[in-house]
Amino acid sequence: MNELIDMMVAQAEREQRTIIAISGHGGAGKTIFADALRERLGDVNYINTDPYITDSLLRKSAMLDYTVDGQEHHYKMTACHPSAHHLPSLERDVRMVREGIGFFTIDVPYLERTWIDPTKRITIIEGMSVAFLAADSWDVSAYLYTDSDTEFARRSVRDIQQRGMDLAYLQASHEERRLQYELFMHPQREKFQTIVSTSNDVWTIENHRS
């Protein structure tokens, strides 16, 4: 991870007003990396895009039909689908950052709002929603992902121990979520300058474009 931080800091120092984008699926290590990058960069703006994800109650009522390896699937929309994100709002806020306009982030029960200060040169935008923005929305970017087993292991610790989910239910939902991820989200990685695998807790830079 330190090598990746060094690369992104070097890129950010070459820009005036800089937007750093970090994306990937749940459990890929986005927030851990964003926190480490913020510690290295110092006093920067930070936008977590979780509040731009449509409420889970609405997503549960939105059923998707998709085909994988010739097999039909019918399952609720997960956050791996672009329609699960309120992209117009996120696009508006990214433009405000770019144009030097200050604003408060979305205030939600699980995340207190913060002020995006237009005098700060660097803004980090992190979360799944970022993957579905246009590539010209940012200046420096990284996409993180893991293999399915690693993702499930990380999510199960949180969802079973902290949220009390049933293991069998979590396994079934993970399999469909992963299918939707491979179909709708994973292809978005090609928009990012750096692609990183964090499988088995090993950070491997698979591709980098300066």
Automatic annotation (TrEMBL):
Q: What phylogenetic lineage does the species belong to?
A: Bacteria, Bacillati, Bacillota, Bacilli, Bacillales
Molecular functions (GO terms): ATP binding; kinase activity
Protein name, as recorded = Phosphoribulokinase/uridine kinase domain-containing protein
Against InterPro entries, the record matches this protein to: P-loop_NTPase, PRK/URK
Q: Where is the Phosphoribulokinase/uridine kinase domain?
A: 19-199
